[in-house]
Write a structure and sequence with these properties.
Elements lengths: L6 H4 L4 E8 L2 E2 L3 E7 L15 E6 L19 E6 L10 H10 L20 H12 L8 H12 L4 H13 L5 H4 L2 H5 L16
Parallel strand pairs: 1-5
Antiparallel strand pairs: 1-2, 3-4
């Protein structure tokens, strides 16, 4: 959105943007730009190197902080920081508080929804699970054979583990492949990925 809004609408238009942080520093874990090269005519997306390269910076994991605002209302932006994901930001209390404040309601009357943090497997564990599923080689099997093979594979995991895999898929649904299977996924949460000496590492 780049066109100017009418005066009446502009006065009511605010953006709430998220910036992921860890240990007091911004996490450079959101795709904020891309570069790409031309693909040859015989390009094979399954085996050739991806010609698209992501660059990372601040954001909510999906939306870059620099873009989560209206171009002509840069002073009407509320930035919320913390350990959250784009897909569950509305469950994050500071986001609810920011909305409540914009509505002009007294903060002491607010009843925030304290949602439980979604259980989610690590990307490494999910990728290992998917690799095992792919290794079944069910593409050439009949639908019945495929169903039996997949069911047998899923029975190796307890319901809580399968739910954790589903949680990770949901949280990463809108993210770039490089965040899920590329260099960033192997490194972890980019930018602020380590806690100062004396503490344990957190994901």
């Amino acid at each position: 959105m780049a066109s100017k809004l009418s005066t009446g609408i502009a006065a009511k238009f605010y953006n709430i943007r998220g910036v992921q942080t860890a240990y007091g520093a911004n996490v450079a874990g959101t795709v904020v730009g891309q570069t790409w090269s031309l693909a040859p005519r015989n390009f094979d997306p399954d085996s050739d190197k991806d010609p698209i390269v992501d660059s990372f910076g601040s954001g909510d994991g999906v939306i870059p902080a620099w873009s989560a605002r209206f171009a002509f209302l840069s002073n009407q932006v509320k930035t919320v920081t913390g350990d959250f994901e784009h897909m569950t930001m509305m469950n994050y209390q500071p986001v609810q508080s920011a909305i409540w404040e914009l509505l002009g309601l007294p903060m002491n009357a607010m009843k925030p929804v304290r949602a439980k943090k979604m259980a989610a497997a690590t990307r490494a564990d999910l990728n290992q699970f998917l690799q095992g599923l792919k290794a079944l080689g069910v593409k050439k099997q009949s639908p019945k054979q495929r169903a039996i093979a997949v069911r047998k594979y899923l029975q190796k995991f307890d319901p809580e583990r399968l739910q954790a895999f589903l949680g990770r898929v949901y949280l990463d649904l809108l993210k770039s492949p490089s965040q899920k299977t590329g260099l960033f996924a192997r490194k972890g949460r980019g930018g602020a990925q380590r806690k100062p000496k004396g503490g344990s590492r957190r994901r």
